[in-house]
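Batch manifest, entry 17 of 40.
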Amino acid sequence: MHILRENGLTLALLGLFALSILGQALAEWRSYDQERALHHEAAVTLRSYLMTGDFISTVFENWGSEFLQMGALAVLTVFLRQKGSPESKTLGEPEPEDEWPGARRNDSEMPWPVRRGSVVLWLYSHSLSTALFLLFALSFALHAVGSAWKASEEAARHGSGPVAWSNILEVPSSGSSRSRTGRASSSPWPS
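Output type: structure tokens
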């Protein structure tokens, strides 16, 4: 029980993540199989579905938009204030986190990156926003790759060749058609 008490937030978030990704996978798998049935193709197993461009595209489309939102919130809350918001700094009052950590480089209580200074300190000072924007970029790239994979699968159904991931950024697939979720079928842009 000691582990549960000390790591309750992490375990709860991992559990919620597992439930949400499972729910998304099951819902999208069912929809994918219905679409395959329209093309007189055999249903696939859940395991097989998890290795399709359709699954990769939808998962990383969602993740990309979340990481972009969180990254923007992290950066904007540094510079902007909102009266009454718990995410905002207090209006007109200095905050302890506004102090540049490099001013306390000689303090032995400070973390190693602060004592080291230079680029290491800069990276440490911007680690949250940097991590979120890197996760956004990774999600964006994986969404583009998954979308190209999905578009290539659809093109193969119609006798066309594969679609490069770079083409996904230029031309929407299937013209003005919409996917089963109502979104443009392979747009890499977060929705």
